Amino acid sequence: ITAHDGDVNVYLYDDLTGQARNISQTPEWDFNPVWSANGRLAWVSGLETNREIQMFDPASGAAHTISADPARDDSPVWSLQGWLAWVSERDGNSEIYRFNPATSVLQNVSQNSAHDQNPVWSHDGRLAWESDRDGNWEIYEFDPATGGIQNLSQHPLWDQSPAWSPEGWLAWVSERDNNREIYVLNPATGQPQNVSQNPALDERIAWSRDGRLAWVSMQSANRGVYVADLATGAVTRVFHHEGGDVALVWYPSASAQ
Questions:
Q1: Contact 46, 35 (CB under 8 A)
Q2: Which SS3 state, helix, strand or coil, does residue 71 take?
Q3: In terms of Cα–Cα distance, which of 112, 59, 110 is closest to 82?
Q4: What is the pLDDT of residue 253?
């Protein structure tokens, strides 16, 4: 993302030639680029009132708008299978849409008049998001194999921030214990489990490639990064220092950074 042409545009850099080129080429703000597994690039274009989703196809070398609606479209995310999901307000509320680049078919998968947001894909192509259709925030899932939608969190208090593990376990932040805790849904039993188990604030989930779960917690005197081994149930703080830790990301080798 650069503004050296006077607009904020998406640039593609070729490491072989050392050349960069503007692939969005719009007078709008272009931001939040995300790559698909097969080399397509999507991003958000526009300001607050009319954001659109654009996609660059390296096979054709062209970028085009795929959302094409005067309402706001935002937050694109790719599945490993090559589907693109985003949040759209074209129905007068925020809904979750998915797009098939092979057929250009766009589908509303949330199908509700409430607010739906924050879509995340599992490795096998299921789609989870947050919805307030029950009068509170819940975690919903769309299964493309059946076309069915189900409420996975099933609780009258706040459930948000879903995150999938590579093995298909779903974690989220829940206030069902009257504070923010980290819950994990066991795919074998369908039952959610509290893995943070403390009265302090727990948030900002991140899965490692080998299935360990990390988050930021206030359970000590300051914010710290904690890691749960779901096989043993052990929870460990990985850093000990006077300063606070506010965010984390896993290195591909699975060591917390």
A1: no
A2: coil
A3: 59
A4: 64
Instruction: Give the closest residue to 50 by CA, choosing from 34, 26, 25, 33.
Output: 26
Burial of 228 (0-12, 13-18, 19+ CB in 10 A): buried
| Structure confidence by residue, pLDDT tens digits, 202-249 | 999 999 998 899 999 988 777 889 999 888 889 998 877 766 777 888
Residue whose tokens read 């069915």: 148
Give the tokens for residue 217: 């917690």
Pairing of the two strands 30-35 and 41-45: antiparallel
Report d(CA 216, CA 181) in Å as an integer: 10
Residues found in the chain: 257
17: number of Cβ within 10 Å: 8
* C-alpha closest to that of 214 among 243, 200, 235: 235
